[in-house]
Design goal:
Helix content is about 5%, strand content about 50%. The protein is mostly beta strands. The strands form 6 sheets. Strands 1, 24, 25, 26, 27, 28, 29, 30 and 31 form a 9-stranded antiparallel sheet that branches. A 6-stranded antiparallel sheet has the order 3-2-5-22-19-20, with no helix packed on it.
Length: about 450
């Protein structure tokens, strides 16, 4: 019997011999690699729990607490001067500590310093909780950075001009024209953790070091720990200005691409004039229904654990006010860490991009080399080696995580495939930022990028 095959073609076509399709399909399957692994090095920068205060009508954001305690080894006692106006509620002062969606915190102590003072003076605290008042802010005679550049206009007053305090940068301020016989308190206003994670990590705790001369050498007298938002510190340096009335500020950052804004540095020479008491909370309720007061009364490593939007409402008694003005410093001790997934990896199939893997970098600001098995998904439906990488921060969470990608590549069997093109969701070419292990990062925060790979 003779079998006749009829092939109908529209336009030009080539007759495929019987059995060829089966053979080609088998050949393609045999050619498909069995081991395709994605490698990528990423890190993240996090902030800490935020404090909200009651202003008489609602809770409003004040600032972050224990802002540089990014692991248990960095736990410390933080003293936050409250800058917004508070109002008592039922003869009590109330605060709310709100946890970020992508973080976990352990709080050991909460307390409150209440400061009564006259209306013509202001008050503040140093980083150890020592309260001071100030009345006249006198700028330095001069201010120069380590290169001799005049920066006085940037720091002489509270305005929109700021000195960008990058890591290991410094300025020397001269207060030689001020009589300090009655007092000398340095008042410093700064905003921390600006900039991007470009370059390496310093492995140091962020701070502004306040130094004076002793035997011809600069000696650190105080440390100002920057906050996520603007904050002011007041530091008594009278006894440290005997040899010279020069003061040096040295900036320490967590990362070479990060810096602090220093808006104003001034000196007050009036004696302290205030009354202060420290009180414990009267109530502390976790998520509206659980009392955690006992755990917050003393530094005993009995922590209140919060995660993923948990909140603690804390109530303090309102004592009699003896002077015209009242100010507050919140005391907090604790530490925090990141939690939750923020990086997402997709490959393409017949229905579009599909999520294959998600993760969160292991340690704060420590590079994490992640490997992902994509053998089932690459090459993709288009026959290409490409992925979509996405970084997500929970909606409504301010600066919860800042993601960064240093380099990325595919290992296909024993061959390394490096990126050949990479564009983010705004159409910008990010290829040079992710090609090499060079600590030059793509700032991935809330961004998406599509990356194609080819042989090196």
């Amino acid at each position: 019997m003779t079998t006749i095959f009829i092939v109908l073609c529209t336009g030009s076509c080539t007759q495929i011999p019987k059995g060829t399709e089966q053979e080609d399909s088998t050949s393609a399957a045999e050619k498909k690699p069995t081991n395709v692994t994605l490698f990528m090095e990423v890190n993240e920068d996090y902030s800490c729990p935020f404090l909200f205060i009651w202003n008489g009508a609602e809770y409003i954001l004040e600032n972050d607490i224990y802002s540089v305690a990014r692991s248990q080894s960095r736990e410390y006692t933080d003293y936050l001067f409250i800058q917004n106006k508070m109002a008592p509620q039922n003869n009590h002062y109330t605060f709310r500590i709100l946890e970020r969606e992508n973080e976990e915190s352990n709080t050991d102590v909460i307390g409150l310093i209440i400061i009564d003072h006259d209306s013509d003076v202001k008050v503040g605290t140093d980083s150890n909780g020592n309260i001071h008042s100030y009345k006249y802010l006198m700028p330095p005679v001069s201010a120069h950075d380590e290169n001799g550049t005049d920066v006085l206009s940037l720091v002489r007053s509270e305005d929109e001009l700021n000195w960008h305090a990058e890591h290991n940068r410094s300025i020397v301020l001269d207060f030689s024209s001020i009589d300090i016989s009655a007092g000398a308190k340095l008042v410093l206003r700064a905003d921390g953790f600006e900039g991007d994670l470009i370059g390496g990590k310093t492995e140091q705790i962020p701070a502004l070091l306040i130094q004076t001369f002793e035997s011809g050498e600069w000696v650190t007298r105080h440390k100002f720990f920057p906050k996520d938002l603007w904050a002011t510190g007041v530091f008594d340096i009278q006894e440290h200005l005997k040899e010279s009335k020069q003061v040096r500020l040295v900036s320490i950052s967590c990362h070479y691409g990060k810096y602090h804004f220093v808006d104003m540095v001034a000196l007050d020479n009036t004696p302290d004039n205030f009354e202060a008491i420290t009180i414990n909370p009267e109530a502390a309720i976790l998520n509206g229904d659980k009392s955690v007061l006992k755990a917050l009364l003393s530094s005993d490593n009995e922590y209140v654990f919060t995660e993923k939007g948990d909140y603690i409402d804390i109530t303090f008694p309102c004592p009699h006010q003896d002077r015209s003005e009242r100010s507050f410093v919140l005391i907090s001790e604790g530490y925090y860490r990141a939690a939750g997934n923020t990086f997402y990896i997709y490959t393409k199939n017949e229905n579009g991009w599909e999520l294959r893997y998600d993760f969160e970098p292991l340690n704060y600001q420590m590079d994490t080399l992640t490997d992902v098995d994509l053998s089932k998904y690459l090459p993709d439906v288009d026959g290409e080696y490409k992925i979509k990488i996405e970084h997500l921060v929970q909606p409504g969470v301010q600066q919860s995580a800042e993601g960064n990608l240093d380099f990325i590549y595919l290992l296909v069997e024993d061959d390394i495939l490096v990126p050949s093109s990479a564009f983010n969701n705004e159409g910008f070419n990010i290829l040079e930022q992710i090609l090499e292990d060079d600590d030059v990062y793509w700032l991935a925060t809330e961004q998406t990028a599509i990356v194609h790979f080819e042989n090196n």
